[in-house]
């Protein structure tokens, strides 16, 4: 299964306790409270869903939804 933009947005929004519509591609997710433990949880979840080569640093270096969507779904948010 490939990760879709909608799935990525929904997973992040669920962790943050907000509506996916509130998140923009430029949103810094750490500013919204996403910490390293939660990011690691997403890495593990998304690896199990097909993102085999995903590493923590891929997400932590640039914690924006647009960047994550680009590396996970191969397209911009």
TrEMBL record:
Protein name: Acyl carrier protein
PROSITE patterns reported for this sequence: CARRIER
Species this chain originates from: Amycolatopsis regifaucium
Residues making up the signal peptide according to the UniProt record: none
Top-level taxon of origin: Bacteria
One of the Pfam families matching this protein, by short name: PP-binding
Domain Carrier: 2-76
Residues forming coiled coils: none
